[in-house]
Amino acid sequence: MAKLRPAGERYKYPLPIHPIENLPQLIPHNPISWVHWLYCYYKSFNGLPKRISIKILARKYCHIIVDDPDEMLFLWENGFFGTGQLSRSEPTWKARTIARMGDLCDEVDRGKSNLALEDITDRRRLQRIDFKKKRQQFEDQLLELRRRGGTIEDESKLVAKERESLRSLKDQQLLSFKKQNDTQLRSEDSELIDEKGELVNLESLELTFVEALFLSFAIPVLDVSPYVLIERFLGPIATLEYRNVYPSIKQYVAYHHYRSHGWCVRSGIKFGCDYLLYKRGPPFQHAQFCVKVLDVDETHDYTWYSSLARVAGGAKKTLVLCYVKNTTTEEEILRLLSKKNLTKALSSYEVSELIYRRWVPGKNRD
Amino acid sequence: MSDIIVNVTLSNLDGNWCVSDGYIFSLEDIKRLRQLGICGVLTGTLGTLAQQNVFLSVPLRLLGEEVLWIITNGHGRLNVTQSSTVPLSLRSTSVREQVRDDNATLIQRSFALQRDTKLKEHLSKTQKYGQTGAVPGDPALFQETPNDSLVLKHTRRDPAAAAALLLASSLLRDQYCHQLDLFSYLKRQNFVVSPGARFGGKYIIYPGDPLRYHSHLIVADTQDYHRDPLDFSAISAGARLATAVKKTWVLNAQIPETREITCFSVEWAGFG
Amino acid sequence: METKDRAEYIVQLVRNNLLYYQLWTNVCVNAEQLNWRGQIFQVITGRPSHKLSNDAAAEGDTKLECVLPVEMCDYKNSDLTLECLDQVFTKLCNKDCKRLTLAIVNNDGTVMFYFVYKGIHKPKRN
């Protein structure tokens, strides 16, 4: 099962384009090896055998969907593109559901390793609620004691008891975390099994506009041209207005900028920003940076920046303000787009960054 | 009881008048404001060693809407000063002439006094050298000057001071009246309101005195009830931030037809 | 037709999310609709798989929650004003519904859930 492969091997490639491998050894003084090497080099091909097919749903806010399981996996494993619609990020819904409905799906070997990240988070949250409930009980008792006018000794006895009991609850929870493997079935789940008795895959992978544009323009692996994508999202290229195109271009320029510098870029909506930057990807470590993309002339009041910085800081991330500047005219960009010269249009933009961090004089001494 | 005195400064920047935040200098007034649930922010510090101060002192700084609330509810009055070095009153020709005339009279009087002293000095000298009859006078070494200012005297009498008061109050009203409705709405529910920039909002709300209670609400910037769409990205950031510090994020708008304030409290649901 | 299809897509997405990701039960898409300036809003009700907060002691057992699916896009403004939210509360929610759960469907494939209370409401106890 894919889950059991070490992450380093599973996510070997940072992008869905691979270097040519398996070339024969080149022996400098043996001309035949040269010929053979050149032949192999010429014959090998590092593009995809077949472009990945996408569906574009709805017209106003488009949803770009990949629903073939292999293609979903491919996009996730090669650069962490897209999000599973029923998962936090990696499309693991099917595996999770199989684990949950274990009895029905015996063919999958179940074990601890089956626990998806989502399950772990869920359990932690439940345990935390239990823990806080217990703590609340003690606090209520303490309050009651004080109201009755209990002595200091009584109070410290109760506090000691609280500490003891909370510690043992923590230990218990840790233990149960390891062996817990509950299977639960609900009447609603019958909908998930088709006539053949197999689990229906409800989940597809959704790509954002910038991801799809990157995967059709910068690294063409989708079966769609970047211009078709732009037309579907923004309207016919011939009648585009700059103010409608610019927000998307701005987002894309920033996305492309960080992808080109080797970052794994994912949506930052949960943190109120545009992008999160991962050094390698979500399975390896937390994102270090929150990026907010701004126009070079854009300003906001102080509270706007401070709330963004508070959110980023609260999640131990650094807020990066990414300013995008058009170095040519608006008309020129539209002209280049209508001539289908996306490369030239996009290279007319400049990117510069600022780090914004909350500074507390009492805490940040160094 | 006397009025609480809120000090504001008027200044003229490139022809536009603007009014400063309110400042309270009297400890007694600060105590009374605190009982009214207006806490303000202490800002007094040592000018040269600002970073050395852990505890700040008077003056207490108030938000514009707090100042407006105090004066519209009859708890206090404004004391307006001008930030420019030349007071407004001196811009009027008649006052300027008056001050000039007063000055001239004073100078004349001082000259007369000096002449008188010199004369007496002269007499005493002539007496020394043998002539008699004249009495020696005091040398004018310590002439007393009155402890007042010509300019201030005129400011007080001046109709321009009343004009400045009027100007300051109307500027406050223009700038903060749309915030006063929300502020008064919160005050009516006995909340203590404090500036919210630390938490990325407009206000932080305490259920009582901040020294006794934790705050549990962050109020977002007011939006237009009919026109402004919800900014989901900002709500996501705000609610996330608020929930992390055990608060809710409060969206608010004024219904223009009824002037009624409407609020919605948002917090992270804890899943998803 | 367009807006209708779109609305249904979002509602289905949130329904599946509640039912098969959050593992809620009794999930039901209410028939009532609110047409707001060409946009259709619909509410989903359901029962969470576990208590969502420790205030639950006061709430009794896990109650039916009212979920409003809305759509967001990172470079376009939404159409949902506070006036519209007021309408949702009065027209689509039960009288005893103490809060609305906003399900924000983003175009990156994620759904975020936020509780919205009418008026000023203290944070839930955690």
Give the total of beta strands of chain C.
5
Which spans of chain B have pLDDT < 50 for at least 5 consecutive residues?
none
Mean pLDDT of chain B: 83
Distance between the termini of chain C: 43 Å
Corresponding CATH architecture of chain C = 3-Layer(aba) Sandwich
What is the assembly state of the chains in this entry? heterotrimer
Structure description:
The complex is a heterotrimer of chains A (366), B (272) and C (126). Chain A contains twelve helices and nine strands. With 366 residues, chain A is α+β, with helices and mostly antiparallel strands. In chain A, helix 5 runs antiparallel to helix 6, helix 7 runs antiparallel to helix 8 and helix 7 (209-218) packs across helix 9 (242-260). Among the domains of chain A are: 114-180; 236-356, Trna Endonuclease, Chain: A, domain 1 (3-Layer(aba) Sandwich). Chain B is of the alpha/beta class. Chain B folds into three domains: 1-92 and 158-188, no CATH class; 93-156; 190-272, 3-Layer(aba) Sandwich (Trna Endonuclease, Chain: A, domain 1), CATH 3.40.1350. Helix content of chain B is 39%, strand content 24%. In chain B, strand 1 (4-13) and strand 2 form a beta hairpin. Chain B is elongated and about 110 Å long. The mean pLDDT of chain B is 83. Chain C has helices at 2-21, 56-59, 82-92, and strands at 25-36, 39-47, 65-72, 100-106, 111-118. In chain C, strands 1-2-3-4-5 form a five-stranded mixed sheet, sandwiched between helices. The B-C interface holds B 189, 205, 216-217, 223-233, 235-236, 239, 242-243, 246-248, 250-253, 255, 262-272 and C 17, 21-22, 48, 52-53, 70, 72, 74, 77-83, 85-86, 101-104, 106, 111-124, 126.
Write the layout of secondary structure elements.
The complex is a heterotrimer of chains A (366), B (272) and C (126).
Chain A: H1 7-10, H2 31-43, E1 55-57, E2 63-66, H3 69-77, E3 83-84, H4 93-100, H5 117-148, H6 152-179, E4 205-207, H7 209-218, H8 226-234, H9 242-260, E5 264-267, E6 275-278, E7 289-295, H10 302-314, E8 318-326, H11 330-338, H12 342-346, E9 349-356
Helix pairs in contact in A: 5-6, 7-8, 7-9
Chain B: E1 4-13, E2 16-19, E3 22-24, H1 27-35, E4 41-44, E5 57-62, H2 64-72, E6 76-82, H3 93-128, H4 150-157, H5 159-188, E7 192-195, E8 203-206, E9 217-219, E10 223-224, H6 232-244, E11 248-255, E12 260-268
Parallel strand pairs in B: 1-6, 9-11, 10-11
Antiparallel strand pairs in B: 1-2, 3-5, 4-5, 7-8, 8-9, 11-12
Helix pairs in contact in B: 2-5
Chain C: H1 2-21, E1 25-36, E2 39-47, H2 56-59, E3 65-72, H3 82-92, E4 100-106, E5 111-118
Parallel strand pairs in C: 3-4
Antiparallel strand pairs in C: 1-2, 2-3, 4-5
Domain tRNA intron endonuclease catalytic (chain B): 179-252
Keywords (chain B): Lyase, tRNA processing
GO biological process, one term (chain B): tRNA-type intron splice site recognition and cleavage
